[in-house]
Design a protein that fits this description.
Elements (H helix, E strand, L loop, with lengths): L2 H4 L3 H5 L8 E16 L5 E9 L5 E7 L14 E11 L14 E3 L5 E7 L10 E3 L10 E17 L4 E9 L4 E6 L4 H6 L7 E11 L7 E4 L6 E4 L5
Parallel strand pairs: 3-5, 7-8, 10-12
Antiparallel strand pairs: 1-2, 1-4, 2-3, 4-5, 4-6, 8-9, 8-11, 9-10, 11-12, 11-13
Protein name: Replication protein A OB domain-containing protein
InterPro entries: NA-bd_OB-fold (IPR012340)
Length: 235
């Protein structure tokens, strides 16, 4: 079975009900926050991480106090995690919910946690689809896109994802697109000697669009290949 087939579907995640204490999901770890002390009197221990289903859903998972100790050893970056017997609940502070579901999952003392191993990216066997910048709105395929560099790419810290990503922008003279790249390698990028105004080709897989203007920002899958190269003409 492909690893992608193990991950919980959007339908399964959408059907989870608040206060259900029998929730079972499988997801890919795409963010971990270190355990910390919280509370007015610094009396509680708190741990939070995020599971991604690889299809646009990101679920915040939390553990408290003594339950943290049997959770932390299993939660490693880019590993596939199976949770069983966790409780869905409304986040205590919605502004700090960095998932994109209306609920978070609470790990309890009787919850089962299994680490199913490291995610191994599947090599795509299909060719990327050439598209225009104006066509990115609903595209989720492996794409190839040519445009000019408007703002050169660099590393930034994304607070919502709690990780360092690549950020830059491109334009075709009419549309502008701010690009957030989860698997950005700054050294490889600068080896291409790309600078502002260059015509480039971006080859990768779009994951989701965020923000009020969905033509402005897109995020590429963390486990997809993304390549940049200078080209001679626009498509």
């Amino acid at each position: 079975m492909d690893q992608e087939d193990l991950l919980s579907s959007n339908e399964a995640l959408n059907n989870i009900q608040i206060f259900d204490s029998t929730v079972e999901i499988i997801g890919l770890v795409d963010g971990i926050e270190s355990p910390r002390i919280v509370g007015n009197n610094q009396q509680y221990r708190f741990f939070k991480f995020y599971l991604n289903n690889g299809n646009g859903k990101r679920v915040q998972v939390v553990a408290w106090n003594e339950d943290i100790d049997h959770v932390v050893p299993h939660i490693l970056p880019n590993c596939i995690i199976h949770l069983d017997g966790v409780q869905a609940r409304t986040p205590k502070a919605a502004q700090f919910n960095n998932g994109n579901t209306t609920y978070e999952l609470l790990i309890r003392s009787n919850s089962i946690i299994d680490n199913l191993g490291q995610y191994e990216p599947k090599i795509a066997i299909h060719n990327p689809v050439p598209i225009q910048l104006s066509e990115v709105l609903n595209n989720t395929e492996c794409i190839v896109l040519e445009a000019f560099i408007k703002t050169n790419f660099t590393l930034i810290h994304n607070n919502k994802l709690n990780k360092t990503i690549g950020c830059g922008s491109i334009t075709d003279g009419t549309y502008k697109l701010e690009v957030h790249v989860l698997n950005f390698n700054e050294d490889d990028y600068y080896d291409t000697d790309i600078s502002k105004g260059d015509k480039i080709e971006i080859n990768g897989t779009m994951c989701t669009s965020v923000g009020k203007n969905v033509r402005s920002i897109y995020i590429l899958r963390e486990y997809s290949a993304l390549t940049f190269k200078i080209c001679d003409s626009l498509c």
